[in-house]
Design goal:
The complex is a heterodimer of chains A (about 700) and B (about 70). By secondary structure, chain A is an alpha+beta fold. Chain A is built from 20 helices and 25 strands. Chain A is globular. Chain B is mainly α and about 70 residues long. Classes of the chains: A alpha+beta (about 700), B mainly alpha (about 70). The complex binds zinc ion.
């Protein structure tokens, strides 16, 4: 029985997400759009050039790689295949109805069009649906390729569909899933099983092909920080005045390595007048930025709004589905004229926020700056010029503003700047200061909000000007350890090293955080992370090496370009894994012990507050009473006789601030409640300064 | 053999320290000369004391400072 009333054959269009299906159907429909609902699932039926089109959608992947052997501890696992997700993940039962509907719709269709996102992931989603739900239509189906969901682009894509277009992409995508599954499941099971056998309880300890190198970047940085030895140096600044205005000039040597030398300079220069010996003005150009790719967008959004990369990806996807921006999962930094600059700018003119700037760009030469990076599937991210169908959320608005202003900026003229350097001689010692100013604003006028390009004004000085002394400061400084990674700089590192894909990078970092390997916004590696890293380094060093995973990325690239057979890549992965598993199995007991200790240490650290102010030997820790199931603060030296204890509020999440109360020396904790309010509180109930202060007020 | 500071496995050439603490000790010893030159006169104990008090100093380096100080005192 057909799902449709009409039994004549039709074209079945498969989209990646429900919102995209609705957009595609609206764009294609010549008259009214017929919507049929099966439970929550919408099917769109429309007429186009006398032919019936049925538009349906996936919700991301409907099929996943798995193994028929579902026992948690069994490894190695090499017998893998593609399965409907609902068979593997019971929480996603709703997928079964969607697959059933697509299967039914496929029965009476005679033409199939894959309209999923055009990249490895989208191609894999479409390929699997065509293969498993549409009875092997993956090679005969047509491909509609578009970079925005605007009416014009979608219509153009359907006028120019091609048969068998993305097969290379799909093969590469499917191989990536299989290889990553084989690495992930086997290594994680081997580690979890080692833990399970020699410790109480069960804990999932994961490591994967891309997780490995990312873990190693963070650990290496952590080691650099923890083993850091600072060395001292000194800096000198002179404050000098001309009439009522002052300048601050720095001694020409940025680091004076001996205190005696610094003291000597200070002694010689203090109270002496300065003479301007040199004023140089140099003009330089600041070129417009490149069009945005996903990585750039993630970086800019982190700097401007503090959005973590996975958040930016999510928000940009919503903007894409709302047809406000082009497809965000792109590595391209190029905007070809074929996207129709004129139409976009005219569209943006309709928005009163952007009207003035859009008009200005329209009056210019309209030549876009282009970056070096390319992506065969999509251009860089750009606004479509369409008007939103709903009121944007605050974060959507922020990201959209950034994308639109960046779009204007790439059309902007070169900004012309001037740098003024002044050298002052004080008793034979040279001190420098500088200023800068904008001569011609160019592209900065569109994008100043998002770049640090403020002018630094400086007193007007000419050679031989005399300056009177105000003060001379000598500062003791120390060399600094390298900065910790944050989610954004780690993503940048992955990009530089070509690890993972533009789509997966943000989620790999998130997984490592969720697993308890990383903590904090400035990323710290936990004891578990160290234990997993040490184990891998000893027994399977290839997994945490960048070389191995990069070689696989290169091979996946070759598959995409039909230059390599996917079986070779899978076989190589299996060989690699077998060697590693063999080594891990041999040392199972030792590995289990190490992991167990690390897990205990990490949990202890999470519960440990500061040194006990009563016995000054033990540590105050957060304890949950076995009798009452209530939490309180107690001393780790209880068995040695210390009875220090204090009650804690029973609601909210308690975290250590690492700080102690200035009145009584007891630890201060943060208590975070739902709806985001945070309290800072001294744990000592009898503290004289006893007060609860809302964190925001401090 | 275990590391004398953290009980991790000590590295092979019998230093008595794990890889990480061994690295700290090497760095602490190597940079002593830089500190001496910087301050003119500076003895080993004061150096360890000042180094352990700096916020920039790594946690493992601090552990080594405490260890080295105690060893000298003992
Ligand atoms: Zn050690």
């Amino acid at each position: 029985m057909s799902l449709l009333h009409d039994s004549s054959p039709y074209t079945l269009v498969i989209c990646e997400k429900p919102d995209a299906a609705e957009r595609v159907a609206e764009a294609l429909s010549e008259k009214e759009l017929n919507i049929t609902k099966y439970g929550n699932i919408k099917i769109f039926i429309l007429k186009r050039s006398g032919r019936t089109y049925v538009v349906c959608s996936a919700i991301g992947h409907l099929y996943t790689v798995s193994s028929p052997f579902q026992k948690r501890y069994v490894y190695p696992v090499f017998d893998v295949g593609w399965f409907p997700i609902h068979m593997i993940d019971l929480k996603r039962k709703y997928i079964s109805q969607r697959i059933a509907i697509i299967k039914k719709l496929a029965e009476n269709a005679d033409v199939f069009i894959n309209a999923c996102d055009f990249d490895q992931e989208g191609e894999t989603i479409g390929f699997n649906i065509l293969k498993y739900a549409c009875n092997e239509k993956q090679t005969t189906a047509f491909r509609a390729k578009f970079s925005t969901l605007t009416k014009t682009d979608v219509q153009e894509a359907f006028r120019t569909t091609v048969q068998g277009l993305g097969i290379g992409l799909a093969k590469a995508g499917r191989t990536r899933h299989i290889v990553d599954f084989i690495f992930g499941i086997n290594l994680s099971r081997a580690l979890s099983e080692s833990f399970h056998k020699f410790n109480q309880g069960y804990r999932v300890i994961t490591i994967g092909r891309v997780q490995g190198p990312v873990l190693s970047y963070v650990i290496n940085r952590e080691v650099e920080i923890r083993t850091f030895v600072p060395t001292p140096f000194w800096r000198l600044h002179a404050e000098l005045a001309k009439a009522d205005s002052t300048i601050i000039a720095a001694y020409e040597k940025k680091r004076v390595l001996k205190i005696s030398e610094a003291q000597n300079i200070k002694k010689r220069c203090r109270g002496k007048k300065g003479v301007v010996t040199k004023v140089t003005k140099s003009k330089y150009n600041q070129f417009p930025p490149f069009p945005l790719n996903l990585g750039d967008l993630q970086k800019c959004a982190y700097q401007a709004f503090g959005f973590i990369p996975s958040q930016t990806l999510r928000i940009s996807e919503r903007l894409y589905l709302n047809a406000l921006i082009s497809y965000p999962r792109t590595s391209s930094q190029k905007l070809p004229p074929s996207i129709d600059y004129l139409r976009i700018l005219k569209g943006l003119q309709r928005d009163k926020v952007f009207n003035k700037d859009a008009t200005e760009v329209l009056h210019g030469k309209m030549i876009s700056n282009q970056g070096p990076k390319n992506d065969p599937a999509h251009p860089a991210i750009y606004p479509t010029g369409d008007i939103s169908k709903y009121v944007l959320s605050s974060s959507e608005n922020k990201l959209y503003d950034l994308i639109v202003r960046r779009f204007f900026a790439v059309f902007g003229e070169v900004a012309k700047m001037e740098r003024i350097s002044v050298t002052v001689d004080i008793d034979g010692y040279l001190f420098n200061t500088y200023g800068k100013q904008t001569l011609c604003e160019g592209w900065l006028k569109f994008y100043r909000k998002y770049v640090n390009a403020d002018d630094k004004l400086i007193l007007h000085l000419v050679e031989n000007d005399e300056l009177s002394p105000k003060s001379l400061v000598m500062e003791e400084k120390f060399t600094q350890p390298p900065r910790r990674y944050d989610q954004c700089s780690l993503l940048e590192k992955m990009e530089q090293e070509n690890i993972g894909t533009k789509t997966t990078r943000a989620n790999i970092i998130k997984t490592l955080c969720d697993r308890g390997y990383f903590s904090g916004t400035r990323i710290f590696a936990t004891d578990i992370a160290f234990a997993v890293f040490d184990v891998m380094k000893q027994y399977s060093p290839e997994i945490i090496s960048v070389e191995m995973t990069r070689k696989i990325e290169d091979n996946l690239d070759k598959i995409e370009r039909s230059k390599m057979d996917e079986k070779i890549v899978i076989h190589q992965a299996v060989d690699q894994i077998m060697d590693s598993l063999f080594e891990i199995k041999k040392a199972e007991q030792e590995i289990g012990g190490k992991l167990g200790q690390a897990v205990i240490k990490t949990i202890h650290k999470q519960h440990r507050l500061n040194l006990c102010p009563i016995c000054k030997k033990g540590f105050l820790i957060i304890i949950r009473s076995k009798k009452t199931n209530k939490r309180f603060v107690g001393c780790s030296g209880y068995n040695a006789g210390c009875r220090a204890s204090a009650p804690l509020p029973q609601n909210g999440t308690v975290t250590s601030t690492g700080k102690t109360c200035s009145s009584c020396g007891w630890p201060i904790v943060n208590i975070r409640f739902k709806r985001k309010s945070t309290w800072r509180l001294c744990t000592n109930t009898t503290c004289i300064s006893k007060k609860m202060v809302k964190k925001d007020e401090m | 053999m275990k590391c004398r500071i953290c009980k991790r496995e000590a590295i092979e050439h019998n230093s008595g320290f794990c890889l990480y603490h061994n690295e700290c000790i090497t760095k602490i010893e190597a940079d002593f000369e830089k500190w001496q030159q910087a301050y003119g006169e500076l003895n080993w104990q004061t150096y360890l004391q000042r180094l352990s008090e700096r916020p920039e100093t790594g946690n493992w380096t601090k552990e080594c400072c405490y260890f080295l100080k105690k060893r000298k005192e003992a």
